[in-house]
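Structure (tokenized):
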């Protein structure tokens, strides 16, 4: 079972160590334990936690393998931010910041990452309150946080400094892209979601307000 899951992780994310895989497995167990006490994810998705949340997050590594500084906004239960923190824990110079205003969820992120041996950089603040606290990242991520027009609004201070955004989106993403065009001009690349055939990952950069 473990070998099959490890092979699938390598297929999705690219090269990672066995220790990194073990940390992800440990994180999965911690997540399930905490989920009994606080709402970290929809209960209906917990049976498929590894594929639906962990691997779905891990695929971002393949899209930006050389990026060192990552920022995840609205991190919630840690997808994709905590997964990226684990994947990049062994990479020299890498750092991953997680922004989560819900203090119970932020406490989970700190505890879970500490438990798997990853130094957490968790900001228990609103996104708007972290612009000065977090320097220019290479990549900004968000998953199941807000419609695309609002995501661009929230992350614009970092994107205008040269960051690229990788946003998980569902089947209605074209409508969100169209609505975003009413307010913003931006560069867009659509990446196939390797885990969910009905989803997509939008790469957004260089936003300019119309």
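Design, position by position:
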């Amino acid at each position: 079972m473990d070998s099959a899951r490890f092979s699938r992780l390598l297929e999705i994310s690219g090269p990672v160590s066995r220790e990194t895989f073990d940390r992800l497995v440990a994180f999965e167990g911690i997540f399930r334990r905490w989920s009994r006490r606080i709402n970290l994810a929809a209960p209906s998705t917990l049976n498929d936690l590894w594929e639906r949340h962990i691997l779905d997050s891990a695929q971002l590594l393949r899209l930006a393998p050389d990026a060192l500084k990552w920022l995840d906004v609205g991190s919630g239960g840690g997808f994709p931010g905590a997964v990226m923190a684990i994947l990049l824990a062994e990479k020299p110079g890498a750092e991953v910041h997680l922004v989560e205003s819900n203090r119970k969820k932020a406490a989970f992120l700190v505890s879970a990452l500490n438990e798997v041996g990853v130094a957490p950089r968790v900001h228990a603040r609103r996104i708007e309150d972290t612009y000065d606290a977090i320097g220019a990242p290479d990549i900004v991520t968000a998953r199941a946080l807000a419609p695309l027009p609002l995501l661009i609004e929230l992350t614009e201070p970092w994107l205008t400094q040269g960051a690229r955004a990788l946003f998980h989106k569902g089947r209605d993403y074209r409508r969100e892209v169209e609505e975003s065009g009413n307010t913003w001009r931006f560069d867009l690349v659509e990446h196939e979601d390797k885990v969910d055939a009905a989803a997509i990952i939008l790469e957004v950069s260089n936003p300019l307000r119309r």
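Reviewer-requested clarification: The mean pLDDT is 95. Residues 18-35 form the longest helix (18 residues).
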